[in-house]
């Protein structure tokens, strides 16, 4: 990247992001004669060969990295150096020469060459809000114009194509090894209540009040038998800043409906470390897909990843809550046993594990 900065994602101000190779050069031989996708495939093969004795038994799921923080998205809200702060709208990441070259070709194919010179120039800055910008505002915003529809279709399709390429490699590499493949999608819940859903758009999810951006992602994962792994499962709408129209519960509901329609398994994780009963209860509800608007049926999340193991988890109250939570998660839809009985079992387990927990907490401190 030092020799060819264009293989890094770039914003309209020329700021480079070195967290992930730009998907604009996925199929170009920019890495000493090889393409990034070839390199990813080589890495996956090396992983399979080295860990073949553990696959399907100890290792039962492989989450395939697709972008920054391992998520299928553009690095539109980088927190390093204070570039972006919650709940800013983020910025489009399509200004390296490879992305611009693809945009130019797409504009020419659409007989609109004038649309191919640059991304939107009126989409504000990382920390703006939608109404601050001509592109994202609700009335007459560029996002809802013919140009906006062309640009956002191209930008989101590039991300879907990237996911498709990497999943094709992953599927052929790990076929018949007994492991599931999963892909992580970011839970971008801020400004979800606006018409344009600006932070989702800059991240590459073409989701607006008029368009479902998660169904195409679910369908792409479905074609490769992958699990849709989603975050912000622990959040409730009213806990978030309402002036930013955050709606994590509505977002989780939309994703649950999209995965159901695409017949793709849904897995979850919490976005922020939480140890309180209130958040753990919300995770239980979400994992059972007990979501308003989702018809009750024999369907639940296929997996849940809990963040995070650290000294706080092993504090006495937090550990007690966590043990009861794990027991309830294990019951799943069969959670009809007496709650007191589960709590008593949890208490016994907490008592038995006390010395081990103290040891773990000390080890993590060091």
Overall shape = globular
Number of strands: 7
Helical residue percent band:
25-40%
Query: So, the CATH homologous superfamily of the largest domain?
Result: Glycosidases
User: What number of structural domains do the residues give?
Assistant: 2
Distance between the termini: 35 Å
C-alpha Rg, in Å? 22 Å
| Helix run count | 9
| CATH class designation of the largest domain | Alpha Beta
Overall mean pLDDT stands at 93
CATH architecture assignment of the largest domain: Alpha-Beta Barrel
The main β sheet shows up as: 5 strands, parallel
Computed structural class = alpha/beta
For the largest sheet, list the strands in their spatial order.
3-4-5-6-7
The fraction of residues in strands falls at 5-15%
CATH fold call of the largest domain: TIM Barrel
Element-level helix/strand string: EEHEHHEHHEHEHEHH
Question: Any low-confidence stretches, pLDDT <50, length ≥5?
Answer: none
Active site: 71, 269
EC number: 3.2.1.2
GO molecular function, one term: beta-amylase activity
Catalytic activity: Hydrolysis of (1->4)-alpha-D-glucosidic linkages in polysaccharides so as to remove successive maltose units from the non-reducing ends of the chains
Q: Helices, strands, pairings?
A:
Blueprint: E1 8-10, E2 16-21, H1 36-50, E3 61-63, H2 97-109, H3 146-174, E4 180-185, H4 198-203, H5 215-223, E5 227-230, H6 248-262, E6 266-269, H7 277-287, E7 303-305, H8 316-331, H9 339-365
Parallel strand pairs: 3-4, 4-5, 5-6, 6-7
Antiparallel strand pairs: 1-2
EC number: 3.2.1.2
Pfam family, one: Glyco_hydro_14
Keywords: Carbohydrate metabolism, Glycosidase, Hydrolase, Polysaccharide degradation
């Amino acid at each position: 990247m030092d020799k060819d900065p264009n293989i890094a994602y770039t914003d309209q101000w020329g700021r480079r992001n070195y967290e992930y190779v730009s998907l604009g050069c996925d199929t170009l031989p920019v890495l000493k004669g090889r393409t990034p996708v070839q390199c990813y495939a080589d890495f996956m093969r090396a992983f399979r060969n080295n860990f073949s004795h553990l696959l399907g038994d100890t290792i039962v799921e492989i989450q395939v990295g697709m972008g920054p923080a391992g998520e299928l998205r553009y690095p539109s809200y980088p927190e390093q150096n204070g570039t972006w702060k919650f709940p800013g709208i983020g910025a489009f990441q399509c200004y390296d020469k490879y992305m611009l070259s693809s945009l130019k070709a797409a504009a020419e194919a659409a007989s609109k060459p004038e649309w191919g010179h640059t991304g939107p120039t009126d989409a504000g800055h990382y920390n703006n809000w939608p109404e601050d910008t001509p592109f994202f505002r609700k009335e007459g915003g560029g996002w809802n114009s013919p140009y906006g529809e062309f640009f956002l279709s191209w930008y989101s399709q590039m991300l879907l194509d990237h996911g498709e390429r990497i999943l094709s490699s992953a599927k052929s590499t790990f076929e018949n090894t007994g492991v599931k493949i999963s892909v992580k999608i970011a839970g971008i819940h801020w400004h979800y209540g606006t018409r344009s859903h600006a932070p989702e758009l800059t991240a590459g999810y073409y989701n607006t009040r008029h368009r479902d951006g998660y169904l195409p992602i679910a369908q792409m994962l479905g074609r490769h038998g992958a699990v849709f792994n989603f975050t912000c499962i622990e959040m409730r709408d009213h806990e978030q800043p309402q002036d930013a129209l955050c709606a994590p519960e509505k977002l989780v509901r939309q994703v649950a409906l999209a995965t159901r329609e695409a017949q793709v398994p849904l897995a979850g994780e919490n976005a922020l470390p939480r140890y309180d009963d209130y958040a753990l209860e919300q995770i239980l509800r979400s994992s059972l897909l007990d979501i308003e608007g989702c018809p009750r049926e024999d369907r639940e999340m296929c997996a849940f990843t809990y963040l995070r193991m650290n000294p706080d988890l092993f504090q006495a109250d937090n550990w007690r809550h966590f043990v009861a939570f794990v027991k309830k998660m294990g019951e799943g839809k069969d959670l009809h046993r007496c709650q007191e009985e589960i709590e008593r079992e949890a208490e016994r387990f907490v008592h038995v594990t006390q010395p081990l927990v103290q040891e773990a907490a000390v080890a993590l401190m060091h």
